[in-house]
Amino acid sequence: MMQGELNMTTLPGELDLLIVPRWIIPVAPRGLVLEQHALAVHQGRIVGLLPVSSANALKPRERRDLPNHVLIPGLINAHGHAAMTLFRGLADDLPLMTWLTEHIWPAEGRWVNADFVRLGTELAIAEMLRGGTTCFSDMYFYPDVAATAALDAGMRAQVCFPVIDNPIPGARDAAEAIAKGLKLRDDTRHSGLITTAFGPHAPYTVGDETLTRIRTLADELDMPIHMHVHETAGEVADAVTQTGERPLQRLQRLGLLSPRLQAVHMTDISDADLALLVEYGVQLVHCPESNLKLASGMMPVQRLLDSGLNVALGTDGAASNNDLDMFGEMRTAAMLAKIVAGAPTALDAHSALHLATLGGARALGLEEEIGSLEVGKAADITAVDLSGIAQQPLYNPASQLLYTCNASQVSDVWVAGRAKLRDGQLIGLNTPDILQRARELAALIAQGEPHES
Prior knowledge:
By secondary structure, this protein is α/β, with parallel strands linked by helices. The chain is about 40% helix and about 20% strand. The protein is built from 16 helices and 17 strands. α12 crosses α13. The model is unreliable at about 1-10 (pLDDT under 50).
């Protein structure tokens, strides 16, 4: 009997769903590809992985035959700013700080309110579900609104409430942002889909006093801290000039380094930085396409993995990517890792899929719940159609998944056993209405944004 497989006699008498694909890549154990196996779901959880010959005797409430498809765990987008999807394409081809200070921050000051966040998050959720993402980590203003949008859509999310030592939309200061964030934690802790995290924006926007307060609360409540860290070499150099410390050193001095810290970007890593990351078991979140587009730098992913660190994958916001396609992110991560490592063997297909699934789950502290297709875990599942012209001939489904697929090949998605996408059609979202409202708002935004002739 293969790992993760159950005898029919151990299955419940009734099944909600039986999915029968051509292949299953469960991610754990790594490298395993099951062919002619079925996946059984009951009450939102995976209850069996078994040969099709045995599964044919079962009588589930629903059977989904997908003869040209591979089943994988639902993808986990471990870093993004969902509502910023409404700024997609607003200010492209600019350096990070120019992009932020001259375009994005002014646009946010003018346009961002609760309605903006609701619409932008709905648009992002629609795009992510359509592309096989079942869980996302969001760091943006009005986090309670984003949490409600995710719950209404039936999507899993880690909602990070942003903290900056300045007024932000929805909070007058850092203290109010923290207070509202902790209320959100209390309101959603039993939701089954929403977890929360502290979201101090970056070392250069949050002072020692606030970071110390966050660390104390995170320790008391066992909560994650999600933060942009070492996004560019310039950020690191400025910190050294101003304080004499690299940002990671400062975070270590303040007690923030731990497995609860989700350090996003980390493109500038010295030997001393690497030693700190390993010593404290920091979680790392790689956003390759955003980093490349903004010329922010390149995370040395294979070196980090070889050091025993966990790495997750994120798209960042659509304003700097410009899409939320985790398949593109996986492929870019793999290509980039090979160049950075100087080795074509770096970040192979199974390793890249691990970053986007179980690596993300571990970074978010959800590895017991999601990230792999294992008995007992939540049935967060993505089906990918490998019958297309670009996928032929097919020798290795994991390789084709990484190097030839994009979001358009996703046919079906389930979150906690509930169908969210069927035959490429979203379920439970009023997509035409979301698109119409997004176009109307974009027309208003465009009127206030200067364009080059």
